[in-house]
Amino acid sequence: MELLPRSPGEFGSARYWDRFFRQRGQRPFEWYGAFPELCPVLHKYVRPRDKVLVVGCGNSELSEQMYDVGMCEDIVNIDISDAVIRQMQERSGSKRPKMSYLLMDVLQMDFPDAHFQVVLDKGTLDAVLTDEEEATLAKVDKMFAEISRVLQVGGRYFCVSLAQTHVLKKAVKYFSQEGWVVRVHQVAGSGDKQQFVLPVFVYVMTKFRKIPGSAPQILEICPEEQDKPMRVESVERLVAAVKDRQHYALLCSQLSKTPCGEQVSLDLCDKESGRPRYTLHVVDSPSVKPSRDNHFAIFIIPQGRETEWLFGMEEGRRQLATSAGFGRLVTVALHREQHYEGMAGIQAELSGKVMELAPPGLPARQQVPFLSVGGDIGVRTVRHRDTSPLSGEYVVEDVKGDGTCYFRRLVFLCNRNVVQSEARLLARTPLAGQKKRRKDKKKPGPAEPPAAIDKSYLCCEHHKAMVAGLCLLGGPDPVPALLAVLVVGLGGGSLPLFVHDYFSQARVAVVEIDPSMLEVATRWFGFSQGDRMRVHISDGLDYVAKLAAEGTILQSIPAQYDAIMFDVDSKDLTVGMSCPPPAFVEKPFLQKVKTILKPEGVFVLNLVCRDTQLKESVLATLREVFPLLYARCIEGEVNEILFCQPSPEGRQDPTELGARAQALEGALRQPGRPWDSSYVLADMLQAVKIL
Q: What are the backbone angles phi and psi of residue 536, rounded to the nearest 5°?
């Protein structure tokens, strides 16, 4: 039996609806949910004494159930289908004496002005507004004008809708321009009985007298999981908020039916501020054989560890899900702007929401475990937050790592999942004679002086590789007597600090474009300048070009540097290369770099490039300028460290590199000087390949 119309325009035809209800018979047809789902919203606003008009009533049981539960009794139902009106009159009959059914068109009603306190529309607007043709929009304007006419000031128009974009925009714009207050409620789903994948919404539009002039629009949205409405600034923002909820519903529907081939990510936002509170990644593991207890689990990533490879990269999360042994794992990252009440609080907050992401085949009433590292949510303390005109908003934060170690990090919030700089903190030790802190005393707060930085420890693997690249310098001595190093990109300063402290004769020049970073490095990362360490606030491109020009004009000036290191990030996130900016690897500029490098020197470049074609182009350009090129990939990261030398005569095989690395490490590991035992220079150069 075919009940659907041949074209959307038939939804406005009385003939179509007569045929529809004759064919359907007495079975109620509930557009967009039944009374139990709509009741919580209607109950907030409809009073027992209200006079209610239901437009396009069809054979829905909504009016009957509102009457039967005592929500209200003075209800008038209208429809353009004579067949359904006669059907409903027979069905209600004498059971509901105060409720009536009338054959009437919502576009031309016979009621006097201001006759009702409530107008209820369940799917009628969606049926009328099937397109945005001029004739259709004119019909909708007439419908809205009639509803406005018969509704009292202070009365409400309830429109139950799927909130298609053109429908929502039309309704909200029309009534908000008339000075009405518009609030959009999302209706709670009805579980397995839900007829639509998309969520159902109720527009609650309250009539006010139109104020001459430009009165502010009042637009609000009230999601299903909360009672308190959220104010939005514009129709566009309201439409976007509804779209977010529709996309989420589609995602949940998809995840409930089939395993996801690719990882799915989404943000859950704070109810008050609207800012992201949790970032979720849904990871399916087809290799895990399902059993009753391993279908589904939630993994809470400790605060501050969301940037680690295991949690922050797609391949890492896949490995985590497989090793955890669950068919579907949802990882949950906690945001630094939010406060959390421990693991139990997070579990209580997320339990209902994460079940909407459950995999197909999850047994009923299955208990879903919440997992974490060490059973806690980690520690994150924001020490400093500011905005730089060049780098944007950034934070300096202390986080607890794996075990008992704490780390200080610099993070640019434009790319919040990337740690810009990192340093290990030395544990606080009480001074001689100082009493041990009582357990019940307040813990140190952000206002206290920062803990000392462990300058002997390089947190970043790519920094370790860059330092190891100094083994490529020629000469009989593992540590050159006088070493001139240029570092472009300061960050927290750990790389130039390490070179300065462990190469006791090195003279280090650092170029940093952002003066804010010098202040951050000095105040929060233990960086300091001196006779052998100078920072130049300048664009690295300009600084190198100036040095190269001086050497060309004054030919008596020799090439200056034994080593040049580039560790500078790109602010343009649209390019497939985040380090360095593209201008730093263009051939004319690289030739200037070569000009200021000694013939036996080494140019070390931190390359972070996800675009394969772009990466091949960069490598080709480097080979044109530097005849000898080595590469060292950083395991588990996108970083690749390139060691470039101006002469092919300095080529060394892996055995020679290993021997030089051991000699250099022996020279740097002096008695009384701390050294990270996990840092083995030879290991850093083992995987080096010649390009």
A: -115, 120
Instruction: Tell me the three state secondary structure of residue 424.
Output: strand
Pair type for strands 116-122 and 151-161 = parallel
**Helical (H) or strand (E) element with 186:** strand 181-186
Closest CA to 179 of 144, 150, 205: 205
The span from the CA of 397 to the CA of 597, in Å, is 37
Tokens 């952002």 locate to 514
Looking at residue 155, what is its pLDDT? Answer: 96
> Which pLDDT does position 511 carry in this prediction?
96
What angle (nearest 5°) sits at the alpha carbon of residue 417, between those of residues 259 and 414? 120
- DSSP per-residue letters across 151-172: EEEEEEEEEEE---HHHHHHHH
d(C-alpha 321, C-alpha 306), whole Å: 15
Q: How far apart are CA 92 and CA 101, in angstroms?
A: 9
Q: Read off the tokens for 84.
A: 């359904």
Cβ contact 103:82 at 8 Å: yes
pTM of the shown model = 0.69
- Provide the pLDDT for residue 295: 84
**For every residue of 520-582, which 3-state class applies, written as one string?**
HHHHHCCCCCECCEEEEECCHHHHHHHHHHHHHHCCCCCCCEEEEEECCCCCCCCCCEEECCH
Q: What is the pLDDT of residue 570?
A: 85
H helix count then E strand count, the chain: 19, 27
Structure tokens at 25: 């018979």
Angle at 323 between CA 317 and CA 327, to 5 degrees: 80
Q: Is the dihedral of CA 489, 494, 497, 501 positive or negative?
A: negative
Give dist(CA 512, CA 106) in Å, integer.
69
Query: Which H or E element spans position 260?
Result: none
- The pLDDT of residue 168 is 94
Q: Which of 18, 200, 23 is nearest to 125 (CA)?
A: 200
R_g (Cα) of the chain, nearest Å: 34
- In the prediction, which pLDDT does 433 show? 45
Tokens of 531: 């006779």
Among 137, 119, 130, 147, which residue's Cα sits nearest to residue 53? 119
* Tokens representing residue 535 in the block: 């920072």
**Exposure class string for 208-247: b at 16+ Cβ within 10 A, else e:** eeeeeeeeebbbbbbbbeeeebbebeebeebbebbeebbe
Which positions of the chain have pLDDT values less than 70?
A: 1-31, 189-196, 213-215, 224-227, 292, 375, 428-450, 474-476, 478-479, 481, 551-559, 650, 687, 691
Check if the beta carbon of residue 268 is closer than 8 Å to that of residue 255. Answer: no
Instruction: DSSP letter for 379, please.
Output: -
At residue 395's C-alpha, the angle toward residues 394 and 399, to 5°, is 145
Give the chain's end-to-end CA distance (angstroms, integer): 70
Amino acid (one-letter) located at 324:
A
Identify the pLDDT of residue 449: 40
